[in-house]
Amino acid sequence: MKAPERVETSRLVLRKPTQSDAESIFSRYSGDPVVTQYLGWLRHQTIEHTRMFLAFSDAEWSRWPGGPYLIESRTDHRLLGGTGFGFEDPHVAATGYVLAHDSWGRGYATEALATIVSLSPHLGIRRLFALCHPDHAASARVLEKCGFDLEERLNAFAEFPNWRPGHREDCLRYVRTIQSVRSGG
Question: Would residue 184 count as lying in a domain?
Fold first, then answer.
């Protein structure tokens, strides 16, 4: 089964990105040094980097049951950030979220992540995980609110290129086991 390309919650719209979103993504969050500080991907230096992300997004949506989503305000359609799935295999996927700075502290990350969790069983995902920098307490709290458990601290596991380029940092791996959805009956 494929993920829906558009999902609505009480306050948000999660939708598949398109090439026409490049400028908004770049200006709202992917080029912002504050927003990207704790992320595992390099801050976009130019709009071309954002276009490369959108090509990657299209490839993920073609190859797997789902991929990246943009997060928008349901009322004014303003771009708030991004979330989605990064499949490792048909039953294991990573997730995460990024929000524009002016969208922090309003519960949007929790609402978006809860939506990702609710889609997971319909896509055959059994294990959903997220990586978090140990100093990013707000992100860890979102994961915990959405039922993720801290599985382990991975020593010198990943580079956070916007935090300390070239230096491998510890990383917290949060995991949520997903109950399968049975069809029929």
Answer: no
Show the tokens assigned to 138: 């707000």
**Dist CA 123 CA 126 (whole Å):** 9
Rg, C-alpha atoms of the chain: 16
Asked whether residue 136 is domain-assigned, the answer is yes
E strand map for 56-142? 68-73, 79-89, 92-99, 127-132
Q: Which residues of 7-18 are buried (b: 16+ CB within 10 A; e: fewer)?
A: beeebbbbbbbe
CA–CA separation, 65 and 72 (whole Å): 21
Tens digit of each residue's pLDDT (9 = 90 or more) over 52-75: 999 999 999 999 999 999 999 999
Q: What are phi and psi of 146, to 5 degrees?
A: -95, 15
**Residue 39, both tokens:** 């992320």
pTM check: above 0.85: yes
Number of domains in the chain: 1
Q: Compute CA distances 43 → 30, 47, 49, 60, whole Å.
A: 6, 11, 9, 20
Q: What is the CATH number of the domain that holds 147?
A: 3.40.630.30
**Which class for 123: exposed (0-12), middle (13-18), buried (19 or more C-beta within 10 A)?**
buried
Q: Tell me the per-residue pLDDT of 104-140, one tens digit each, with 9 for 90 and over.
A: 999 999 999 999 999 999 999 999 999 999 999 999 9
